[in-house]
Amino acid sequence: MSVDRSTVWEFHGGQPGTFTYAREAHPTGVEAERELAQLEGAPDSQALLFSSGMAAATAVVLALLEPGQTVALAQGGYFGTGAMLAELGRWGLRYLEFDQTRPPPDGVDLVWLEAPANPLLTMPDLEAAAAHPARVLVDSTVATPIHLRPLDHGADLVLHSGTKYLAGHHDALVGAVVSRDPAVHEQLSHFRHLTGSICAPDVAWLLLRGLKTLRVRIERQTENARLLAGRLAAHPNVETVRYPGIGGLVSFDVRGDAQTVERSTRLIKNATSLGGTETTIESRHRWEGDRVPVNLLRLSVGVEDADELWADLEQAIG
């Protein structure tokens, strides 16, 4: 479809139509939301796009929780989520981390899982989480709906940093939330309208483009990642390999200095973020400190030739 960049739409007979003001919704975004909802198995119009993954995450917390409530957050997941929740502690929100391979703790108001956790790559116990009385959110950025549809496993909300695999080309900053409950969807939609955290039409169009090739890209990235994870595990200069068996994300600990390794690759880009068609590598300790091993490297595997990627890794690791 073409991009509709309008910010306002004309009334008909003095009455607003389907679209009135782009801060509330726009045609390109609604089409992308419909496509994503179908991929996640949710009814039409129960996905919402945001200006970034963190904007989507913040909207969930502020729209659905109240001061004094507590989030149970998966250990070893994206550090930005914990940093955001800690910042909101000034407004009376509490959070605690837990081992997501086990049941969530009692007495919490939202269970926040990550499938898999980035960068430690544990997978959540979805059955145990679904049995908990609190709402369950799954950050499924890395799994994508190609490998996992959390709503099918009892989750209430699915979060995506669409910047990563959904858009897939390192050129679109976008987040998304898919809701099981229409009432929750409406709460989030109202909050997005009030706060103005909707994504722009051009970005929504880029997301639509990415969704068209999502399965092909994810299948190739998974194939490459499985091969590289196996070869890394057999390398004498690699201490630990973490790979959940799905998706394109691998993390591993090297014997020696991780930052020397990341600076030594040639084909593989030394850059942050993940999920694009080009392979990237980085030391996560520079951002996350001692919550991750100092020699951990996060490898976001792209669609390049797997043997060429391995040759580059092998010469960098030494």
What does the average pLDDT come to? 97
Secondary structural class: alpha/beta
Would you state the CATH class of the largest domain? Alpha Beta
Q: Helical percent range? A: 25-40%
What percentage of amino acids are in beta strands? Answer: 15-25%
| Overall number of strands | 12
Distance between the termini: 48 Å
The domain tally reads 2
Largest sheet properties:
7 strands, mixed
Summarize the structure.
With 318 residues, the protein is of the alpha/beta class.
Overview of this protein structure:
This protein is α/β, with parallel strands linked by helices and 318 residues long. The chain has two domains: 27-212, Type I PLP-dependent aspartate aminotransferase-like (Major domain) (Aspartate Aminotransferase, domain 2); 215-317, Alpha-Beta Complex (Aspartate Aminotransferase, domain 1), CATH 3.90.1150.10. It has helices at residues 27-40, 53-64, 79-87, 126-130, 144-147, 182-195, 201-212, 214-233, 258-262, 285-288, 306-317, and strands at residues 47-50, 70-74, 94-98, 110-114, 135-139, 157-161, 175-179, 238-242, 249-254, 269-270, 280-283, 296-300. Strand 5 (135-139), helix 5 (144-147) and strand 6 form a beta-alpha-beta unit. The longest helix is centred in the last third of the chain and has 20 residues, at 214-233. The chain is globular, with a radius of gyration of 20 Å. It starts with 26 loop residues before the first helix and ends with a helix.
